[in-house]
Design a protein that fits this description.
Strand content: over 45%
Number of helices: 0
Largest sheet: 6 strands, antiparallel
Number of strands: 6
Radius of gyration: 12 Å
Strand order of the largest sheet: 1-6-2-3-4-5
Shape: globular
Helix content: under 10%
Order of helices and strands: EEEEEE
Distance between the termini: 18 Å
Structural class: mainly beta
Length: 67
């Protein structure tokens, strides 16, 4: 898995994804967020907050299927 910039593309379906985002002026965080795709509109939601403008990159959150 690798990080995908939101400038390059967004997820194709709604669901949970790992994201990197800005919180305030300085702090950079990594967290799991919900992505909601509604036609041509979308939202990133974290703890009930709309974080759409803060998310910079994302990756899938598929479970580990190894040994």
């Amino acid at each position: 898995m690798e990080w995908i910039s939101c400038k390059d593309r967004l997820p194709e379906k709604s669901g949970s994804y790992f994201v990197t985002f800005r919180w305030g002026e300085i702090v950079r965080c990594t967290e799991k967020m919900e992505f909601h795709l509604m036609g041509h509109q979308y939202r990133w939601v974290w703890n009930g907050r709309d974080m759409t403008c803060n998310v910079k990159a994302w990756m899938t959150s598929e479970p580990y299927m190894g040994d």
